[in-house]
Amino acid sequence: MEYTIRNQEMTVVVKSLGAELQSIRGKDGTEYLWQGDPAFWGDRAPNIFPYVARLTEGTYTLSGQEYAMRIHGFLKYMELEVKEQREDAVTFELRSCEDTRKQYPFDFAYRITYRLRGKTLAVEHQVENLGSGRMYFGIGGHPGFQVPLEKGLSFEDYQLSFTEACRPYRVGFTEDCFLNGQDEEYPLKEGRILPLEHSLFDQDAVVLKHACREVTLSSDKGSRGLTVTYPDFPYIGFWHKPNSQAPYVCVEPWSSLPSRKGIRENLSQQSDLIALEGGKCWETVWEIRIF
């Protein structure tokens, strides 16, 4: 089922399956969100929980037990319940159940709220540990954005620009997208700009660490763009379908990274996962601001 929120500047549509964004429209009718053409990528903006990206052989261990989980976790495949809806905000919730426990042996409540403030869409995450022991998880966003955003422009007319100059490192991946431990400094034009070209993604995603926590998608030849702000996320990924002319780019805030190549991770020992004590609640927010 789809739910719509709006204010004077934006109209946003979200579906209950995965609480996935379906549309972000400005008041002039501009559609900012990728609309899911299966010829390139059928999704639009999956939410990532409780594991970011791939597990070696699709499995991990915990307390001596082995569990299987698909890429980016199970949230995108689950129906979430609407807990609250107002004209400009909607909150969805997923609670652990028999299906989730087969993949992830924790009792939890995951909540996501989409909230409009002017030209900004806030994406608020809350994870509550309903058990008594410590739970471990990764979380992130995977929204795709239309490129170009205006007629007469091309993909190559756009750039991703960080708000401040920075010296990020590109996280090293194997050809099948596992960590290889070979992170390298990733130079940016003028210290903060990444010009877009389709070949940028021929080796799959560009995932950066030590980057500025705010990035803008825009073109000097146009007036439409957007800024993604992610203050609590140490990694940012950029992606479209490799070896294609796909007319979109994903901007992905990640809290953690995928498995190391050839290593079946023990969830309790993966250092970049969030560790949440029993009875506690973890919260974060990231934002999309259109212009």
Describe the structure in your own words.
By secondary structure, the protein is mainly beta. The protein has one domain: Beta-galactosidase, Chain A, domain 5, CATH 2.70.98. Helix content is 2%, strand content 41%. It has one helix spanning 98-103; strands at residues 2-6, 10-15, 20-26, 47-48, 59-62, 65-68, 81-86, 89-95, 108-117, 120-129, 135-137, 140-141, 144-146, 158-162, 169-170, 184-185, 193-195, 206-209, 214-219, 226-229, 235-239, 248-254, 274-276, 281-290. The strands form 6 sheets. It has a 9-stranded antiparallel beta sheet, with no helix packed on it. Strands 13-22-21-18-15-16 form a 6-stranded antiparallel beta sheet, with no helix packed on it. Strands 1-2-3 form a 3-stranded antiparallel beta sheet, with no helix packed on it. The longest helix is centred in the middle third of the chain and has 6 residues, at 98-103.
